[in-house]
Each structure stands twice: as structure tokens, then as C-alpha cells.
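We store chain and fold; example below:
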Amino acid sequence: MICITSEENKQKHGRIQVRRIGKRNILSILFLGTAGQIAWVVENSWFNTFVFDRITTDPTPVALMVAVSAITATITTIIMGILSDRTSGKWGKRKPFIVFGYILWGIITAIYPMVEWIQTIGVAILIVIITDAVMTFFGSTANDAAYNAWLTDIGHSSNRNRIQSINNITVYVAAISSLVLAGVIIDIFGYFVFFYILGGVVTIAGLIATFLIESTPIKKEDIKFEKSFLKEFADLINPKILKENRTLFLLFLSMALGSIGANVYGPYLFIFMEHYIGFSKTELSIFGALFLLLTVVILVIAGIYSHRVNRKTLVIIGSILGAMLTILLGLTSLLVGGNSSLAVLTFLLYFVATIPSLLSSVAFGGWLFDNYPEGNIGKFQGIRMIFMVLIPMVLGPPIGSAIISTFGIPIADGYIPTPEIFIFGGLISLLSVIPIFFISKSEGQINLD
């Protein structure tokens, strides 16, 4: 495992010795990270399916729900991140927000399908959007704000790539669970049982976190409030903050550009694979699960060895290769078309295209952790959400939709996505390396202090 071979941070024989993360912290990351990511994966996929199946087939409410959720997540993370920075008590800064946030997150998720009982469609649509926003509030409080700030709190420059690797693993474990199990549970037992199970998992995660996360008592007098809460919030548009955290904002900008590119094709990936390439849903589940399992293996390897490479070098190489392979995927798909004998090649190429990006993301995450200003880690989780969620989700999918409308295959109700979404998405993703060139290579080194 990642933590067993790590030692106290020092340099021996020209090699960096990685500081121990600790078994308790690793268990906390794996458990809380997986539970939280399962909830997010389900919200981004099966919530929309529920609305389509049980409320209305009109796509407009789903689009509105996604937009309201993104805005809610961003604002919540900023506000609750600042509050967690200013929190004291026997549990410390982050633990109260994680514990109670997860518990309430699960409860709201469990009651979500009860909206189906509302007979008036207009009222049901309004309530489903409000319920999703409330669920997002507690989820962003617990996960986006407190949990991600806690990941920074427990880390050190030498082990943050590994922490990011472990956290990334939870994303793909959650995706495997959603892809393989969710559909089966819904088909056999229905939406109510599915959401009860999901909500129960998240709530239990919060209860277990009470005992699993170490409590680090903080006295109120130990927290120095240099600024009022409103001043902290106003700092989000203060040019001085940008100047003082130049490297961090360059990383944020790079992340936004890469995420915009990924959101050009990401929301339409399964539709493309099924209706253009010709995969069945069962084949998508099988190949998707295998793909995600291999991804977990790569993340483990990346977490163990990525600290040996300068972060700037790894991010640039990974980003360029990932973008170029995505463009190649689009070009290859144009040739493959509906040729079922070559369909697996398309899926394999998509998997290969994600490998450089995975390696880059591990270094990128550790690099971000190193640059969050001490004392304002929670607040900057909210700023991160602006670049990671709000901007990409507002710009990426509409660009993809416009490309599909221009190049897609017309059908009765719209268009089938075609390979051009990967070509344009890859080209946009290439732009993500530009901000990195403005960061010195020395800043990409692991800090041994």
C-alpha cells in the first residue's frame, strides 16, 4: 500500500523519502472520498434519469437543475470554506462540517424520490430543483469545502501527490459502483430503494467519520481573524489576492481550460459510444468497468512514483499527450464509424488517451495543495470550484452541443454526437498548458522543508 513504504521526509542518496500519510488518514480518504464521490456521480447521472423517467421528458428542467446545482456548489464551497477556516473547538476546523454535512447530505438524498408523489408537474419540477440544490448545499459543505481542505491540512509537499492519487482512486471506485451496480438496483428494486441505499451509505459515512477522523482541538484564541467574514468574501474579487497567489491562479486557469475541453465531449461520451460507435449498454458497462479498474491501478502506480518527476514537467507532458491522443481518438473514430469489428479500438484509444491526463492530474492536485495559503485553505476551495466546476460546466457542454448541432447525425428529436466533439475538445484542452509555461520549473519541485 502507499503508506507502508513511506518514511519521514528527508533526502537520502539523492532520492526523496516521502512522509508517512498514516493508515487512519488513508482509511478516512478511501471511505469518505468513495462515499462522497458515489453521491456526486449519482447526482450527475441517475438524478437526471429519475427526472426523465418519473417527472417529465422535457430536457429543460434537467438543464436548469444542473445549472442551479453548479451555482449552489460554488457559492456554498466559498462560504462554508471560509467558515471552516474560522472554526474552533474540540473537533478542530474541518471535522464538524464533514461529519454533519455527510449525515444531512445522505438524509436529503434518501428523500429525493418522494418528489414523484407530487401530482402537479410544475410543482414537482420546482421541488426537484430545490431538493437537488439543498442536497448540493450539504454535499458541497461536507465534501467540496471541508473534506478537500482537510486533505490539504493532513498533507506535506512530499506526500501530496500520493494523497491526490488515493483521492482520485475514490472517484473511479465510485464510478465503477455507479456504472455496474446502480442500473441493476434501479431495474430490480426501483428508484426508492436505490436512493435509500445511496443516502444510507452517505449518512453512515458521516457517522463513521465521527470516530475515524482524528480530532485536533483548536482554541478560539488560537485563530487570528485578520479580516471580517464579509471582507474575506470580498477578497474574491481583490486583485491583490490574485497577485499574492499568482502560481495558484495560473494553476486554476490551467485547470479551467482543461476542464472546459473535457466538458465538450464528456457529457456526450456514452451517447456517442452507443449511438455512433454501436456499443450496447451492457457492453458499455463491461468495458467501462474494466477501464475504470485499470485506471485505479495506474493511479496507484502514479501515486507511488510521481513525486520523482518535477510537477511542471509532468503536467505539461501529460496535458499535451492527453489532448493529442483525444484528437487522435476523434480522427480514428471518423474512420471506424459504425464498424463493429473496430469498435473496441475506439474504447481502447479513449482509455489510452486518459492515461497521460491521469498522471498529470496526480501531480496537478499535489501542486495545488502546496500553493493554498495557510489559514485560507477553506476559502480557496471555493475559488477552486469556480474554475473546476462553474466555468467548465457553463462553457463546455454548450460548446459540445453547438458542435453536435453542426456536425452531428440528424435524428427525429435532435442529433447523434460525432467524433468532432473529441477533436474540438482536445484542441481546447491543449490551451491548458499555456498558463503552466508562466510558472518557473523550480516551483514544480517537491518542497523538502
